[in-house]
Amino acid sequence: MSEPRAELLKGTLDLLILKALTVAPQHGYGVARWLEASSRELLHIEEGSLYPALYRIERRGWIRSEWGTSESNRKAKFYHLTSKGRSRLQEEASGWERLVEAVTLILKTQPTEAGQG
Amino acid sequence: MSEPRAELLKGTLDLLILKALTVAPQHGYGVARWLEASSRELLHIEEGSLYPALYRIERRGWIRSEWGTSESNRKAKFYHLTSKGRSRLQEEASGWERLVEAVTLILKTQPTEAGQG
DNA sequence: TCTATATACCTAGAACTTCTAGGGAGGCGG
DNA sequence: CCGCCTCCCTAGAAGTTCTAGGTATATAGA
Fold it and tell me: pTM value?
């Protein structure tokens, strides 16, 4: 009965990380906790998804990082949004909204009103 | 100026195909046209995504196919939903709704109300 | 007849994201 | 001292979507 794969995020992780960093610069672990709390635990962020995502996002210049000390007095890498990241967030957010609109249109189509117009 | 990748569907294609087949049994090409029309052309379905998706969905027993003749008098493979597919559609639809809810919650969080509670 | 267009199906492999399943180190409370 | 939580990291598997081709047939129009 082992669940095969969760596959929950569906390509939204970049968007979510960028959004998390608009609230405040945060370290990776903090981003994960913030996303889970903000989604009221609907989402769970795997570290094996999170850290690779942070690296590729940084590589693309949307975020930058600095080592610092966390609230719990541990070494942590703090990420902050760049201006490039801020505009990328807008693009991703509107792309997401278009997808939601498209899927919503499709899902609410009734078999009886199948008239292709 | 070549756009690198569209990446529009974000893992929703199975859901969309299953939904399309609740309206009526359709062939692959028809599913694609129906999805585009129903989404008011917000989505474009690539055939290189569509056909592999149809095969894996059939392999999982959610749809079944029969060869027939299309409205334009061409040979076409018509797919119809199985009962397994019908319940899978419900699962995918509620999974999608949960994701939308989660992402919506996160996106609407204001930096000023960052109080983690 | 010849050609263009739309219909309809198919495939290999690249690109990409996410997950599994580990690993390590340090701070702190009991 | 030990367990737990915090915090970071990685390799490779698994999965989906796209690119970029290919094939074949029906039909309309020149």
Answer: 0.91
